[in-house]
Amino acid sequence: MGSTKLTKELKEWAAARGLVLGVAPVRPFERGRQALAWLARRGLATPFATGRPEERYRPDLLYPAARSLIVVARPHP
Question: What is the 3-state secondary structure (H, E, C) of the chain?
């Protein structure tokens, strides 16, 4: 199955359940890096902090073989 067909099928599956689905390439989240740097400069911590903060904006460090990210959201009424 090609990636375009799989993406379409995943989006249809999600929509049938009232969800929104997106697919993105695995690459660093620049805005995430900037936000973490901003928080660090102010001495602010988040409940999601890990020992390796770069893992929060570099999905390739957690899953080196990954090529795509699948993101699913449920719209809030």
Answer: CCHHHHHHHHHHHHHHCCCEEEEEECCCCHHHHHHHHHHHHCCCCCCCCCCCHHHHCCHHHHCCCCCEEEEEECCCC
Q: pLDDT (tens digit, 9 = 90+) per residue, 12-55?
A: 999 999 999 999 999 999 998 898 889 888 988 766 666 777 88
Rounded Cα gap, residues 6 and 2, in angstroms: 6
What pairs with residue 5 in β-bridges? none
Q: Are 51 and 44 in contact (CB under 8 A)?
A: no
Q: What pTM, to 2 d.p., does this model score?
A: 0.67
